[in-house]
């Protein structure tokens, strides 16, 4: 019998009921998928590294005033997050042409874009996450006008911050994907950053060699994906500390400790 309730299982993460109302536990798996799950595999140790990288980035984003769902890391593979009502949109921010924009518009990979682009995709696996316009978002009521304004503002702030953060460790931030969710306070809601930020959802190229340090190594069968993820964590200074032996958070133990 499972000792806690699973809320959702995605391709790279599992969400469990959290210890307090309004919280969830986000568990990072080693599973990797690409091309709408047509390609499946595992990247050894990815979950541990993504948990750590995402903790680091979300904590720093919190310090610069980008509200997000991260509360604290619980152990090697899990973090406590705020429960949000996920907005069914993937927000992609691009600085340099790569991946689908190169394919779609014939722009050579590596070409600097004239300015940062924000694109929206409808989050629906069965439909293959199709690209959408803001008009679709408004038309189908997936997010309101003010919410979209907040999302675009946050996406640009995250991009500015992350470009600098990665440049400082000789990494070029090519593009990345963000997800947002709503939290409610009575009848009022606000939008905060959710999901994760890790080499799974970013394109990260070494500044000098152009070496890919992200999930494209898996998508394109380049090999060395474990080492690439580790290299990003190492450059961010995240590999030294001892994370302890615990792999999963024990909800019943936590409740007992809190007298519940
Ligand atoms: P593209 O549209 O070029 O395939 O992806 C643009 C950026 O968004 C890349 O950094 C890619 O990793 C990220 N991205 C887009 N869709 C997804 C997705 O469904 N899952 C993940 N992990 N990343 C995505």
Automatic annotation (TrEMBL):
GO terms for MF: phosphoribosylaminoimidazolesuccinocarboxamide synthase activity
PROSITE patterns in the cross-refs: SAICAR_SYNTHETASE_1 (PS01057), SAICAR_SYNTHETASE_2 (PS01058)
Gene3D superfamilies for the chain: ATP-grasp fold, B domain, Phosphorylase Kinase, domain 1
Pathway: Purine metabolism; IMP biosynthesis via de novo pathway; 5-amino-1-(5-phospho-D-ribosyl)imidazole-4-carboxamide from 5-amino-1-(5-phospho-D-ribosyl)imidazole-4-carboxylate: step 1/2
Class of this enzyme: ligase
This protein's record includes keyword Ligase: yes
EC number: 6.3.2.6
One Pfam family per UniProt: SAICAR_synt
Keywords of this entry: ATP-binding, Ligase, Nucleotide-binding, Purine biosynthesis
Record field: catalytic activity: 5-amino-1-(5-phospho-D-ribosyl)imidazole-4-carboxylate + L-aspartate + ATP = (2S)-2-[5-amino-1-(5-phospho-beta-D-ribosyl)imidazole-4-carboxamido]succinate + ADP + phosphate + 2 H(+)
Keyword Ligase assigned: yes
Domain SAICAR synthetase/ADE2 N-terminal: 6-235
UniProt record similarity statement: Belongs to the SAICAR synthetase family.
PANTHER family noted in UniProt: MULTIFUNCTIONAL PROTEIN ADE2, SI:DKEY-6E2.2
The protein, known as: Phosphoribosylaminoimidazole-succinocarboxamide synthase
């Amino acid at each position: 019998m499972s000792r806690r309730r699973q809320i959702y299982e995605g391709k790279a993460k599992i969400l469990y009921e959290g210890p307090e109302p309004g919280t969830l536990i986000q568990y990072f798996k080693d599973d990797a998928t690409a091309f709408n799950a047509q390609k499946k595999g595992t990247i050894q140790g990815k979950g541990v590294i993504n948990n750590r990288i995402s903790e680091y980035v979300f904590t720093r984003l919190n310090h610069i005033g980008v509200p997000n769902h991260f509360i604290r890391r619980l152990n090697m593979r899990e973090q406590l997050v705020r429960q949000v009502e996920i907005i069914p949109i993937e927000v992609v921010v691009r600085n340099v042409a790569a991946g689908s924009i190169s394919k779609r518009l014939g722009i050579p990979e590596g070409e600097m874009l004239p300015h940062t682009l924000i694109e929206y995709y409808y989050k629906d696996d069965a439909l293959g996450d199709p690209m959408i316009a803001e008009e679709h978002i408004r038309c189908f009521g997936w997010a309101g006008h003010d919410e979209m304004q907040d999302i675009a503002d946050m996406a640009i702030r995250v991009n500015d911050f992350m470009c600098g953060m990665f440049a400082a460790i000789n990494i070029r931030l090519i593009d990345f994907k963000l997800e947002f969710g709503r939290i409610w306070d009575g009848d009022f809601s606000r939008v905060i950053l959710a999901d994760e930020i890790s080499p799974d959802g970013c394109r990260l190229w070494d500044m000098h060699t152009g070496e890919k340090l992200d999930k494209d190594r898996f998508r394109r069968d380049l090999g060395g994906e474990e080492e690439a993820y580790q290299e990003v964590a190492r450059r961010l200074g995240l590999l030294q500390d001892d994370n302890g032996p615990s792999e999963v958070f024990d909800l019943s133990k936590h409740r007992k400790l809190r007298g519940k």
